[in-house]
Amino acid sequence: MENVYQDQVYQFKGLWDVPSICGLKIIKKLKNTIVIATDLFDENPGTSITEWNTKLAKDICDKNQIDYKQLIYIEHTPDKKTKLSFNHESFFKVNFEIRDDKFVNPQWSEITKDEVNNLMNE
C-alpha cells in the first residue's frame, strides 16, 4: 500500500510501556513544523496514535528539536479499503495546550487531504 504520508516507521512506548509504532512524516518549514502521525492499524502491536497523542507529539518534538509553539500536528488514518465509513482515509489537525512542559487538552479538527497538501506546500 503506497502512502505519501508514511516516510518512516516511528517506534514509541505506549500505554503501560507497550512497544508501539506509527508512520511519521516531518516537514520543517521557516515558520512551523508539520508532523503527520499515521495510524498503522494492523502493524501496530500497541497503543494507537489518537490514544497517546499528547505524549507522542511531545516525544516527537523533543527527539527532533521541534519548537512546541511551531508545531502543526496531524493525525492520519489511511484508507482500509472497506465500505465502513470509519475505515476511510481521514486527517485531523490536533491542537494542544502546553502546561508545565506537557501537551494537554487535545482539540481535533478534521481537515481534507488537499488542506494537508497545501500546508506542506506553503
Can you describe what's shown?
- By secondary structure, the protein is α+β, with helices and mostly antiparallel strands.
- It has one domain.
- It is 16% helix and 40% strand.
- The chain is built from two helices and six strands; from the N terminus they run βββαβββα.
- A six-stranded mixed sheet has the order 1-2-3-4-5-6.
- α1 links the parallel β3 and β4.
- The longest helix is centred in the middle third of the chain and has 11 residues.
Q: Based on CA inertia axes, which overall geometry fits?
A: globular
Determine the number of helices (DSSP H or I, runs of at least 4 residues).
2
**How would a textbook summarize the main sheet?**
6 strands, mixed
The CA-CA distance between the termini, in Å, is 27 Å
- Strands of the widest sheet, in order across it, are 1-2-3-4-5-6
Keywords:
about 120 residues; alpha+beta; six-stranded mixed sheet; 2 helices; 6 strands
Write the layout of secondary structure elements.
Blueprint: E1 8-13, E2 19-28, E3 33-38, H1 53-63, E4 71-77, E5 90-99, E6 102-111, H2 113-121
